[in-house]
Task: inverse folding
Protein backbone atom coordinates (compact mmCIF):
# COMPACT_ATOMS: atom_id res chain seq x y z
CA UNK A 1 0.00 0.00 0.00
CA UNK A 2 2.90 2.34 0.74
CA UNK A 3 6.16 2.86 -1.15
CA UNK A 4 9.60 2.83 0.43
CA UNK A 5 9.44 6.56 1.31
CA UNK A 6 6.05 6.16 3.00
CA UNK A 7 3.95 7.72 0.21
CA UNK A 8 1.09 5.95 -1.53
CA UNK A 9 1.81 4.61 -5.04
CA UNK A 10 0.07 6.11 -8.06
CA UNK A 11 -1.95 2.90 -8.48
CA UNK A 12 -3.79 3.66 -5.24
CA UNK A 13 -4.94 7.06 -6.51
CA UNK A 14 -5.86 5.60 -9.89
CA UNK A 15 -7.99 2.95 -8.24
CA UNK A 16 -9.57 5.52 -5.90
CA UNK A 17 -10.46 7.74 -8.86
CA UNK A 18 -11.90 4.81 -10.80
CA UNK A 19 -13.94 3.61 -7.83
CA UNK A 20 -15.28 7.15 -7.22
CA UNK A 21 -16.37 7.43 -10.85
CA UNK A 22 -17.96 3.99 -10.66
CA UNK A 23 -19.97 4.91 -7.56
CA UNK A 24 -21.09 8.20 -9.12
CA UNK A 25 -22.05 6.45 -12.37
CA UNK A 26 -24.00 3.76 -10.51
CA UNK A 27 -25.73 5.72 -7.77
CA UNK A 28 -25.85 9.22 -9.22
CA UNK A 29 -28.72 8.63 -11.67
CA UNK A 30 -30.62 6.61 -9.06
CA UNK A 31 -30.30 9.43 -6.53
CA UNK A 32 -31.58 11.95 -9.06
CA UNK A 33 -34.62 9.76 -9.79
CA UNK A 34 -35.40 9.38 -6.08
CA UNK A 35 -35.18 13.13 -5.51
CA UNK A 36 -37.33 14.01 -8.52
CA UNK A 37 -40.00 11.53 -7.44
CA UNK A 38 -40.85 13.97 -4.64
CA UNK A 39 -41.68 16.80 -7.05
CA UNK A 40 -44.68 18.94 -6.27
CA UNK A 41 -47.98 18.51 -8.20
CA UNK A 42 -46.83 21.06 -10.79
CA UNK A 43 -43.32 19.63 -11.03
CA UNK A 44 -41.73 18.27 -14.18
CA UNK A 45 -39.29 15.55 -15.16
CA UNK A 46 -36.18 17.64 -14.55
CA UNK A 47 -34.71 20.09 -12.08
CA UNK A 48 -35.37 22.56 -10.57
CA UNK A 49 -37.77 21.12 -8.01
CA UNK A 50 -41.22 22.72 -8.01
CA UNK A 51 -42.24 22.03 -4.45
CA UNK A 52 -41.94 18.83 -2.42
CA UNK A 53 -44.82 16.37 -1.97
CA UNK A 54 -45.96 12.74 -2.17
CA UNK A 55 -48.36 13.59 -4.99
CA UNK A 56 -46.79 11.29 -7.58
CA UNK A 57 -46.68 8.33 -5.22
CA UNK A 58 -50.39 8.79 -4.55
CA UNK A 59 -51.03 9.08 -8.30
CA UNK A 60 -49.64 5.58 -8.85
CA UNK A 61 -52.59 3.96 -7.08
CA UNK A 62 -55.32 6.59 -7.43
CA UNK A 63 -58.01 6.81 -10.06
CA UNK A 64 -55.81 9.19 -12.05
CA UNK A 65 -52.98 6.72 -12.38
CA UNK A 66 -51.42 5.88 -15.72
CA UNK A 67 -51.14 2.14 -16.28
CA UNK A 68 -51.94 -0.77 -13.99
CA UNK A 69 -49.23 -0.28 -11.39
CA UNK A 70 -51.09 -1.99 -8.53
CA UNK A 71 -52.05 -5.03 -10.61
CA UNK A 72 -48.63 -5.42 -12.20
CA UNK A 73 -46.97 -5.08 -8.79
CA UNK A 74 -49.12 -7.88 -7.36
CA UNK A 75 -48.38 -10.09 -10.35
CA UNK A 76 -44.63 -9.47 -10.08
CA UNK A 77 -44.57 -10.22 -6.36
CA UNK A 78 -46.62 -13.41 -6.78
CA UNK A 79 -44.50 -14.54 -9.73
CA UNK A 80 -41.24 -13.76 -7.92
CA UNK A 81 -42.34 -15.76 -4.86
CA UNK A 82 -43.34 -18.72 -7.05
CA UNK A 83 -40.07 -18.57 -8.99
CA UNK A 84 -38.05 -18.38 -5.75
CA UNK A 85 -39.82 -21.42 -4.27
CA UNK A 86 -39.46 -23.55 -7.41
CA UNK A 87 -35.83 -22.47 -7.81
CA UNK A 88 -35.02 -23.43 -4.21
CA UNK A 89 -36.70 -26.85 -4.44
CA UNK A 90 -35.15 -27.82 -7.77
CA UNK A 91 -31.72 -26.40 -6.91
CA UNK A 92 -31.54 -28.27 -3.60
CA UNK A 93 -32.68 -31.54 -5.18
CA UNK A 94 -30.24 -31.15 -8.07
CA UNK A 95 -27.40 -30.15 -5.75
CA UNK A 96 -27.91 -33.22 -3.57
CA UNK A 97 -28.26 -35.42 -6.64
CA UNK A 98 -25.02 -34.20 -8.21
CA UNK A 99 -22.99 -35.01 -5.11
CA UNK A 100 -22.60 -38.53 -6.46
CA UNK A 101 -21.26 -38.84 -10.01
CA UNK A 102 -23.52 -40.53 -12.53
CA UNK A 103 -23.42 -41.25 -16.23
CA UNK A 104 -24.11 -38.09 -18.19
CA UNK A 105 -23.76 -35.74 -15.21
CA UNK A 106 -21.50 -33.34 -17.12
CA UNK A 107 -23.94 -33.15 -20.04
CA UNK A 108 -26.86 -32.57 -17.67
CA UNK A 109 -24.96 -29.82 -15.89
CA UNK A 110 -24.04 -27.92 -19.05
CA UNK A 111 -27.55 -28.27 -20.43
CA UNK A 112 -28.92 -26.83 -17.18
CA UNK A 113 -26.76 -23.70 -17.31
CA UNK A 114 -26.78 -23.26 -21.10
CA UNK A 115 -29.58 -20.70 -20.90
CA UNK A 116 -27.20 -18.26 -19.20
CA UNK A 117 -25.33 -17.72 -22.48
CA UNK A 118 -28.44 -17.58 -24.65
CA UNK A 119 -30.05 -14.19 -25.34
CA UNK A 120 -33.05 -13.87 -23.05
CA UNK A 121 -35.27 -12.43 -25.77
CA UNK A 122 -34.76 -15.52 -27.94
CA UNK A 123 -35.45 -17.82 -25.00
CA UNK A 124 -38.74 -16.04 -24.42
CA UNK A 125 -39.55 -16.15 -28.12
CA UNK A 126 -38.94 -19.90 -28.26
CA UNK A 127 -41.15 -20.54 -25.23
CA UNK A 128 -43.94 -18.35 -26.64
CA UNK A 129 -43.81 -20.15 -30.00
CA UNK A 130 -43.88 -23.53 -28.28
CA UNK A 131 -46.98 -22.59 -26.31
CA UNK A 132 -48.71 -21.40 -29.46
CA UNK A 133 -47.81 -24.58 -31.36
CA UNK A 134 -49.36 -26.58 -28.51
CA UNK A 135 -52.50 -24.46 -28.67
CA UNK A 136 -51.87 -22.90 -25.26
CA UNK A 137 -52.11 -19.23 -24.46
CA UNK A 138 -49.20 -17.37 -22.92
CA UNK A 139 -49.72 -16.08 -19.40
CA UNK A 140 -47.54 -14.66 -16.67
CA UNK A 141 -48.11 -17.63 -14.30
CA UNK A 142 -47.55 -20.39 -16.90
CA UNK A 143 -45.25 -19.51 -19.79
CA UNK A 144 -43.93 -16.51 -17.86
CA UNK A 145 -43.02 -18.71 -14.92
CA UNK A 146 -41.23 -21.20 -17.18
CA UNK A 147 -39.35 -18.45 -18.98
CA UNK A 148 -38.08 -16.94 -15.76
CA UNK A 149 -36.99 -20.32 -14.41
CA UNK A 150 -34.60 -20.61 -17.37
CA UNK A 151 -32.89 -17.55 -15.87
CA UNK A 152 -33.04 -18.28 -12.14
CA UNK A 153 -32.39 -22.04 -12.04
CA UNK A 154 -28.82 -21.91 -13.41
CA UNK A 155 -27.87 -19.39 -10.72
CA UNK A 156 -29.57 -21.50 -8.06
CA UNK A 157 -27.68 -24.59 -9.21
CA UNK A 158 -24.33 -22.81 -9.21
CA UNK A 159 -24.93 -21.46 -5.71
CA UNK A 160 -25.94 -24.87 -4.36
CA UNK A 161 -22.93 -26.53 -5.99
CA UNK A 162 -20.66 -23.97 -4.33
CA UNK A 163 -22.35 -24.46 -0.93
CA UNK A 164 -22.28 -28.25 -1.14
CA UNK A 165 -18.67 -28.16 -2.31
CA UNK A 166 -17.72 -26.81 1.14
CA UNK A 167 -20.13 -29.05 3.03
CA UNK A 168 -18.45 -31.43 5.48
CA UNK A 169 -20.11 -34.80 4.98
CA UNK A 170 -18.72 -36.11 8.26
CA UNK A 171 -21.78 -34.61 9.97
CA UNK A 172 -24.03 -36.84 7.87
CA UNK A 173 -21.83 -39.84 8.60
CA UNK A 174 -22.04 -39.10 12.33
CA UNK A 175 -25.84 -38.90 12.10
CA UNK A 176 -25.91 -42.25 10.29
CA UNK A 177 -23.71 -43.81 12.97
CA UNK A 178 -26.18 -42.57 15.59
CA UNK A 179 -29.01 -44.39 13.83
CA UNK A 180 -30.58 -41.60 11.79
CA UNK A 181 -32.60 -42.62 8.75
CA UNK A 182 -31.99 -41.06 5.33
CA UNK A 183 -34.87 -38.63 5.81
CA UNK A 184 -33.75 -37.69 9.33
CA UNK A 185 -30.22 -37.13 8.07
CA UNK A 186 -31.43 -34.77 5.34
CA UNK A 187 -34.12 -32.94 7.32
CA UNK A 188 -32.27 -32.60 10.64
CA UNK A 189 -28.64 -32.33 9.55
CA UNK A 190 -28.12 -31.50 5.89
CA UNK A 191 -30.87 -28.97 5.21
CA UNK A 192 -30.36 -26.96 8.44
CA UNK A 193 -26.66 -26.65 7.66
CA UNK A 194 -27.44 -25.62 4.09
CA UNK A 195 -30.06 -23.06 5.18
CA UNK A 196 -27.93 -19.90 4.61
CA UNK A 197 -27.19 -21.08 1.07
CA UNK A 198 -30.85 -21.95 0.51
CA UNK A 199 -31.85 -18.44 1.62
CA UNK A 200 -29.29 -17.08 -0.85
CA UNK A 201 -30.83 -19.14 -3.66
CA UNK A 202 -34.29 -17.82 -2.73
CA UNK A 203 -32.96 -14.25 -2.73
CA UNK A 204 -31.43 -14.70 -6.18
CA UNK A 205 -34.61 -16.28 -7.51
CA UNK A 206 -36.83 -13.52 -6.15
CA UNK A 207 -34.71 -10.55 -7.24
CA UNK A 208 -33.92 -11.95 -10.69
CA UNK A 209 -37.61 -12.66 -11.32
CA UNK A 210 -38.77 -9.32 -9.90
CA UNK A 211 -36.52 -7.37 -12.29
CA UNK A 212 -36.66 -9.66 -15.35
CA UNK A 213 -37.96 -8.25 -18.61
CA UNK A 214 -36.29 -9.88 -21.65
CA UNK A 215 -37.61 -13.42 -21.12
CA UNK A 216 -40.98 -12.18 -19.85
CA UNK A 217 -41.77 -9.71 -22.62
CA UNK A 218 -43.12 -12.36 -25.02
CA UNK A 219 -44.39 -14.87 -22.47
CA UNK A 220 -46.42 -12.78 -20.00
CA UNK A 221 -49.50 -12.58 -22.21
CA UNK A 222 -51.81 -9.57 -21.96
CA UNK A 223 -51.16 -8.90 -18.25
CA UNK A 224 -47.90 -7.07 -17.65
CA UNK A 225 -45.51 -7.67 -14.83
CA UNK A 226 -44.10 -4.59 -13.11
CA UNK A 227 -40.93 -4.29 -15.25
CA UNK A 228 -43.05 -4.54 -18.41
CA UNK A 229 -45.49 -1.96 -17.05
CA UNK A 230 -42.60 0.40 -16.29
CA UNK A 231 -41.22 -0.12 -19.78
CA UNK A 232 -44.63 0.74 -21.23
CA UNK A 233 -44.79 3.85 -19.06
CA UNK A 234 -41.52 5.15 -20.50
CA UNK A 235 -43.25 5.54 -23.88
CA UNK A 236 -46.33 7.46 -22.77
CA UNK A 237 -45.79 8.92 -19.27
CA UNK A 238 -44.12 12.32 -19.05
CA UNK A 239 -44.51 13.04 -15.36
CA UNK A 240 -42.56 12.28 -12.15
CA UNK A 241 -44.94 9.34 -11.60
CA UNK A 242 -42.38 7.29 -13.52
CA UNK A 243 -39.73 8.25 -10.98
CA UNK A 244 -42.09 7.35 -8.14
CA UNK A 245 -42.44 3.84 -9.58
CA UNK A 246 -38.66 3.49 -9.65
CA UNK A 247 -38.38 4.62 -6.03
CA UNK A 248 -41.08 2.19 -4.85
CA UNK A 249 -39.60 -0.80 -6.68
CA UNK A 250 -36.14 -0.02 -5.32
CA UNK A 251 -37.49 0.11 -1.76
CA UNK A 252 -39.14 -3.29 -2.24
CA UNK A 253 -35.88 -4.76 -3.56
CA UNK A 254 -33.89 -3.42 -0.62
CA UNK A 255 -36.47 -4.71 1.87
CA UNK A 256 -36.23 -8.21 0.39
CA UNK A 257 -32.42 -8.12 0.46
CA UNK A 258 -32.34 -6.88 4.07
CA UNK A 259 -34.80 -9.59 5.18
CA UNK A 260 -32.72 -12.29 3.46
CA UNK A 261 -29.41 -11.07 4.91
CA UNK A 262 -30.95 -10.72 8.36
CA UNK A 263 -32.28 -14.28 8.16
CA UNK A 264 -28.83 -15.57 7.22
CA UNK A 265 -27.26 -13.66 10.12
CA UNK A 266 -29.83 -15.06 12.57
CA UNK A 267 -29.24 -18.63 11.35
CA UNK A 268 -25.47 -18.26 11.68
CA UNK A 269 -25.78 -16.69 15.13
CA UNK A 270 -27.99 -19.53 16.35
CA UNK A 271 -25.60 -22.06 14.86
CA UNK A 272 -22.65 -20.44 16.63
CA UNK A 273 -24.58 -20.37 19.92
CA UNK A 274 -25.46 -24.04 19.52
CA UNK A 275 -21.82 -24.90 18.85
CA UNK A 276 -20.74 -23.05 21.99
CA UNK A 277 -23.34 -24.87 24.08
CA UNK A 278 -22.22 -28.20 22.66
CA UNK A 279 -18.61 -27.38 23.47
CA UNK A 280 -19.46 -26.40 27.05
CA UNK A 281 -21.50 -29.58 27.51
CA UNK A 282 -18.71 -31.79 26.24
CA UNK A 283 -16.17 -30.20 28.59
CA UNK A 284 -18.30 -30.59 31.70
Result:
Amino acid sequence: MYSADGSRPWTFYAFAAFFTLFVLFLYGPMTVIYILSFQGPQGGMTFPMNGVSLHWFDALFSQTRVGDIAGSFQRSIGLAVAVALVTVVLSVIAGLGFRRPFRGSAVAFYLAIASLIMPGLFVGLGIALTFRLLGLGTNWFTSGLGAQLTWTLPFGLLIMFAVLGRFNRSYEEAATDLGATSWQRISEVTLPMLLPGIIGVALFGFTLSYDEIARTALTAGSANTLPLEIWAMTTNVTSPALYAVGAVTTVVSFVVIIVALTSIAVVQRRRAAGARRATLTSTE
In short: The domain at 70-283 is CATH 1.10.3720.10 (MetI-like fold). The chain has one domain: 70-283. The chain is about 70% helix and 0% strand. The chain has a mean pLDDT of 86.
